[in-house]
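The following block was generated as part of the benchmark described in Methods. Ligand: beta-D-galactopyranose.
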Amino acid sequence: MTPTLGVCYYPEHWPEEQWADDARRMKEAGLTWVRIGEFAWSRMEAHPGKLTFAWLDRAIDTLGAAGLKVVLGTPTATPPRWMLERHPDMLAVDAQGRPRKFGSRRHYCFSHEGYREECRRIAQLLGERYGKNPHVQAWQIDNEYACHDTTVSYSDAALRGFRNWLAQKYQSPDALNRAWGNVFWSMEYADFSEIDLPNLTVTEPNPAHVLDFRRFSSDQVAAFNKVQTDALRPLTDRPLIHNYMGRETSFDHFKVGADLDIASWDSYPIGFLSDRLDASDEDKCRYLRQGDPDNQAFHHDLYRAVGRGRWWVMEQQPGPVNWAPWNPAPLPGMARLWAWEAFAHGAEAVCYFRWRQAPFAQEQHHAGLLRPDSEAAPALSEAIEVARELIDLEQVSPTNAPAALIFDYEASWVFETQPQGADFTYFGLVLDAYRALRRAGVSIDIVPPDAPLEDYSLILAPGLAIMSDALKSRLAASGAITIVGPRSGAKTPEGSIPVPLPPDLPGLDATVSLVESLPPRVSEPFDGDGAFIRWSEHLEGGADALVVTRAGRPALVGSGTLRYLAGWPDAEGWNRIIALAATDAGLKTTLLPDGLRLRDTASHRFAFNYAPEPVTWQGQTIPPAGVHWWPLDQIPK
Ligand code: GAL
């Protein structure tokens, strides 16, 4: 596969006379793709039913004539103002019961049937007009589901939908009462129509109620997306894509992805480090202009799984963004490094966001490949460099990684509902496990719980709150060194504590007898390197202790290939646990220099230097923001 580059473009933001020159410059820069249209509903249909596609026809023709391939977005993330006159109750409602008003974007509730029908209508109109257009080579549905915290809505539409969803799931109020444990605090219902949404309660609502509402809300995103894929499928055979976000767990991306052909995500490494990651202040300074060394790779691996092997970066940060608390510029070279890291993880395309910085409206401080005056911004020359390099290194084919990390969106909802420790997050736990594998130089596949596991030597399943018996047996039988825990198998599907107590793994004599959460600055040191932070479990049973705490309690126990980890390790603890497991799994690992990361493809080993200083590794000095690759048969020993 030869990966390609692209860019996001908004013809409706610029005078039409400028389009042809923009298209020419994109092509000259070596770009293949141009994504357009995803926010342009008010220009496609300025008044209800009054469709004006002529400008879009001309934009697509101009871009296509220059030799670019168009990704056409459905504009459903930005319903125009008139839509509210037609559907006054279509707005999402926040947990305080307040409507989330018009004036920015994503102002809709996923459950609103009337708005869904409008989305079906516009998707069908676009499909009829452009489904066979030779320049439209891919489609993007909507834009960043969940962005701005929009998955969960407490609207009347959501209430109606939730009651139906519960009635279908439980069939009778008695069954629901039993499953949720509603005898507690006299919360029992006599009819589904009595059940409300779990907001505005006096104190915390029943976690089982919240968990089902989270499942329902996730299903609504998948149903909303499917309305549009169903409308487009008969009209086009081009791939359908959605651009997901980083660190977004509010809906099950695997379910949404099942109705799409390619997964893509929007990668803003510097914005995320400042805004979304629990990085230390020290790391936030060290990686200020590079972004976190593992966060991009984590999402590349996750979305490769969501796309069943096919994935893109639909939006790549080119320079300072506008939306993080602070918005520094990338180190020279990062716009190139980020693209190469994506390609090394199997991305088919990387599209920079955006072509030209807009001098107006919300994102006027967000850099593009061009400045507002159309001069080149710093990232343009890096994009050109990547495009040239791709010509020389045509094939970048992904290969199966030796290690798998199991990822489950539902687990995130379980721990958000009852964290039991203020800083316990599923995403944070899984990312820490991932970081440890990366520091050891291991290439990783992130996989859903139902993925085949036979081809891996090492499997990690941290925080997998709800584990089916089938998964437990598959893990026990996989033959791979498998580390389960902490908090894996800790809940029933209803969100209760199972009996027999967790983890209840076949062939492993270990039972979690007590759990405790630890505040910041408190840790549970191991005997030797490492410690538990945030979360620590007490174990009973005869399984061999492979690592013990200084207090003499088992921290990691194992029997055969199956291990249980009884807490959240700090970085040193993870390094030790991964080194032990890798040795047993027959994997060669090394602790990489700080900031250096590796990734193997079918033909090459790539090295990326995220450190602000040069790094020398295996005889090769890589400058800050540098990328180096070796053919696999020439890797220094
Ligand atoms: C993304 C979004 C884009 C733009 C960009 C700015 O979240 O999809 O439309 O807002 O962020 O960084």
